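S.,

As promised, the 2-phosphoglycolic acid run. Input:
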Amino acid sequence: MRRKIVVGNWKMNGSLASNEALLKALAEKIPQTTPVDIVVCPPYPFLFQTQSYLKNSPIRWGAQNVAKFESGAFTGEVSVSMLNEFGASYVIIGHSERSTAYCESDENIATKFMMVKKAGMTPILCVGETLIEREAGIMEKVVSKQLDTIIKMYGEEIFDESVIAYEPVWAIGTDLAASPEQAQAMHQFIREKLSSNNKVAKSLKIIYGGSVNPQNALQLFSMPDVDGGLVGRASLNASDFESICHSAEI
Ligand code: PGA
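Predicted complex:
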């Protein structure tokens, strides 16, 4: 049985004061014995603060993006080694808000995925289709292509001990979450696509993202191929996030 994982993606939200309240509340609410992997991904400037509030908590932390280079003249970028220094264990890669707004290519995303793995952190790769693509019935083709670039560049085994977040673009920030059946169908498709490598088939976690909230989390997480969630807005509220984490204790 794969251990479930719930990741909070804070996006560009928070301040020292509001994070302090949120992190303190989470550290208090989440017991050491939690059977779920719980992760928060704050904006870069708050990684130090996050590290200090969570150091005695089972909650891990990560970043929302990373550079595809190790170091050098790349103004505005943050490297994997910098994230490592702040104790980050996870990095979200290829979120649709980034790939759309900053025209990030599948090749760039693949390189970042490899960099994160090489640094010993866990990549959380976001894949998913737009509404037009779903309506055209080509969602599996779209997701397949997003995965194929990584497979072509680094082989299927790179997905060992990784996390894939299926995030249909139409469900992000819209309050229109995918139905548990829609999520399950795509998760099963992804798992079957990557199951020829035994190690990957055992260790890969596939989580759902897009308008997860305390009301729909349990149903989504109950589906056999849904290993948890990537949570945006609801991760900014300690009670909502705690409740979603509880829903993963199944
Ligand atoms: P949402 O965001 O939960 O606010 O829809 C999810 C995400 O973009 O990761």
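The CA atoms of residues 72 and 185 lie 43 Å apart. Strands lie at 5-9, 37-41, 60-63, 90-93, 122-127, 163-166, 205-209, 228-231.

- D.
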